[in-house]
Amino acid sequence: MITFDSVTKRYPDGTVAVDRLSLEAPTGEITVLVGPSGCGKTTSLRMINRMIDASEGRILLDGVPVQGIDPPTLRRGIGYVIQQAGLFPHRKIVDNIATVPYLLGWDKKKARARAMELLERVGLDPALAGRYPFQLSGGQQQRVGVARALAADPPVLLMDEPFSAVDPIVRTSLQDELLRLQAELNKTIVFVTHDIDEAIKLGDRVAVLRVGGTLAQLADPKTLLSEPADDFVREFLGHDRGIRRLQFISTEGLRLRTDLTVEEGAERGTSEPWLLVVSGDGRPVGWVSGARPGELEPYGTFVYGRDSMRSALDAALLSPSGCSVAVDEQGKVVGVATREALDQALAEAADG
Amino acid sequence: MGWLTAFFSWLGEFFGNPENWSGPDGIPMRLLEHLEFSALALALAALIAVPLGLLIGHTGRGEVLVVVSANLARALPTLGLLVMFVLLLGAASIWPVIIPLVLLSVPPILVNTYEGIRGVDPELRDAAYGMGLRGPQVLLRVLVPVALPLILLGCRLSAIQVVATTTVAAYTGLGGLGRYVIDGFATKDYASVVGGSVLIVLFALVVQTLFTLAQRVTVSPGVSQRLKVR
């Protein structure tokens, strides 16, 4: 656990970057620090591994004040990932990843073996091991940055806007990868971002900071969206926080109808206005309406039980039928969520 | 085309003369002297300028020294400096010549080493400290390898300058390839002037090539980005 105990950072010119910040980052969880520029989120993060020293207050790592630990020793025990990856350009990927093991005096063979293991763990081709950083894409470099931070298996990981310099598609895959890794590794992660969506997606707990370095709210993402502490937090969350809350509501309890599907080429003797045409192997093909039986209309799907209500609603809005198609992990149709079913689920969500 | 014919006949005369290939006045001896003076001056200059440039670049302290040396290098007349030292110290040893040669070749190395270290991406420096490297480790394991192309460039510029200036130093009575040029002019022996000049040019080219090779060997392909992106 990382504890901020009334921590202040004041610069010689009098600027206060962080103002009496107290919060806890629990063991095995992702705590996200989020806020506009000038809110002291990066400064707070960098005070944990003493890249910056706090002016007042204490930062405790499992109860031990970091201020008492020699900075290089402290840093070797804490994984650190930064925005541009910051890989050493003159070293091959495998040696970049093994940086901290080398520093800790590991045997070269063991350090390299560990690096190769991590390369695969972060989803990279082992063939990249012998390349240099400039030969990798931004997203690949960032994965190497994560692997490097994990190399000596530190219990704590600090991530300073690690995904903000890559394009949105790569960013999404890096975020998913981090969540997958975290499910395996259970590190204590402090993650800094200015992107509230990223904070809500990744955080077990989200700390919203305001300019001047004070804590506005610390809560789990769902609570943050439903009960923002004040106008600042409400504004920072953006105007569609109601919709975004839906991503924390599971589709597990959603009532599905199984009588609205028809196999491709089969007779359509029914009074229903819309029917879902399903292929021979159970995959959705399109909606067909009673008014225009010859034409297939577009459909939207969500994975039943895994995806959130937000996805289910989104899928419904993609189709003129107003219904969304529930599929299993293999993409086979398990049923149809009608407007009535969605409406009922939304009413329950609005009740909290 | 008369001048070209004359040029080649002088060359033939100079290199064809067996007397020019032996004794203290012979080409091998002069070449060795030239190499000796240049190498000594360059080695001393590098010994002073590289550590100083690394230290100033890494700590950010003493930057004024770099600026002063860069300006001095531009302001000081080479020949004047040589003559001054010879007049002050006499011509009994090689030092009155070596000292100004060293002084002249310190600035390019110092400035480029300093710039090389300073110019390393601050994010990279930050990452190095963040991984837990200590100050000297950051300098030697990260900053130096990344700044190496510039450091070597400084050394190469100085080397070329030293080779050229050593030629001029013959004016003060020093040996080396410059003797052929200076003495040739004095005795109107143009074969010697032309032959000496060609030797000096070849010498400078060899030095350039050596530095290029050294760069190939010592600079990481990750820094020079010589490898193709596969």
Account of the 3D structure:
The complex is a heterodimer of chains A (352) and B (230). Helices cover 33% and strands 24% of the residues of chain A. The model of chain A has no long low-confidence stretch (mean pLDDT 92). Chain A has two domains: 2-247, P-loop containing nucleotide triphosphate hydrolases (Rossmann fold, 3-Layer(aba) Sandwich); 261-350, CBS-domain (Roll). The longest helix of chain A has 18 residues, at 168-185. In chain A, helix 7 (168-185) links the parallel strand 7 and strand 8. Chain A is of the alpha/beta class and 352 residues long. In chain A, helix 12 (309-317) packs antiparallel against helix 13. In chain B, helix 1 packs across helix 9 (190-218), helix 5 packs antiparallel against helix 7 (135-169) and helix 7 (135-169) runs antiparallel to helix 9 (190-218). Chain B has a single domain (23-220), classed as MetI-like fold, CATH 1.10.3720. The model of chain B has no long low-confidence stretch (mean pLDDT 89). With 230 residues, chain B is mainly alpha-helical. In chain B, 40% of the residues are buried. The chains are: A alpha/beta (352), B mainly alpha (230).
Please give the CATH class of the largest domain in chain A: Alpha Beta
Residue runs with pLDDT of under 50 for 5 or more positions of chain A: none
> Which CATH-level-2 architecture of the largest domain in chain A?
3-Layer(aba) Sandwich
- How far is the N terminus from the C terminus of chain A? 30 Å
Order of helices and strands of chain B: HHHHHHHHHH
Question: The CATH topology of chain B is what?
Answer: MetI-like fold
**What Rg of chain B is obtained from the alpha carbons, in whole angstroms?**
21 Å
Query: Total number of helical segments of chain A?
Result: 13
Mean pLDDT of chain B: 89
Can you name the CATH architecture of chain B? Answer: Orthogonal Bundle
